[in-house]
Fold this protein.
Amino acid sequence: MENRILKYFVAVAEELSFTRAAKRLHIAQPSLGQQIRQLEAAIGAPLLVREGHHLQLTEAGRTLLHEARNIIVLTERAVVLTRQAAKTEAGLLTIAMVAGPENKLFSTVFAAMFRQYPGVQIVLRTLTGPEQLDAIRDHAIDIGFLRGPIELEDGLVSEIIVREDMIALLPADRPLARQKRIDIRTLAAALPLVDISEAVAPALHRAIHRIAANAGVRFNTIMVVESITATLNAIASGLGFSLHCEYVRQITPKNVVVRPLDVSPVPQLDLVVVYRRNDRRAALEFFLKSLRESQECNVERMIRPPDGWVGASR
């Protein structure tokens, strides 16, 4: 017996009028009458009797009304619970990232995520790139955002999300800061490097020294730090310069200037998302889909999708 037919009967039984029930159900009255007659035929007993101008429920009709209401409630509850189960089957998504353009990337992605999966809980962690790879492998986190290129273990998948230009950061009071573009050789001769720890940010560290090698120079490292905050503080104090990704422009203090590099092509660094290949939870796949479709990374030229995006590796 279809749930739809039971709803028709409940409407007639509650209204005790085919006319009012048909209006309530937004169907034609003759069709409603036919459905009720078919229901009575299927049950083998009259459910309604007409007394003068009024409808009355028979004993069988009263019994069916009670049971039909329960069936409808249980069916609707089953649908709701099933949908909730589908939407919250992930339960919890743990996402890790290195410091970077996460505000731009996630401003629309998280909003879409919570609309589609209101029951899911997201935990955000800040981990270094190597820590993220270990945590994904050990199921301590579900998704990682780190700087690439990276070498992946079997079972992990990576996708390039954005590709950023590398830029120079230097103290605002140095003569070199007045130049519109910075030559690497001139920079290396003028200031020492505030380097990023290779253990913390291997891709960025390698990119910095690859830029020096391509220019035929060696940077004089004065300090090795483990965060962008420490980098900016050191440069603001006049200790030296650094090379970083373009997103840093958003967070530099007034006494630190950002300048493009006078090289062609401009060196770039990728932001990569990594996850387990066999993790097929609906919430995780929706998050990745929303991330791929997000236009937030196109808002400014400094953060843009790479040519040919998107493709997964491994």
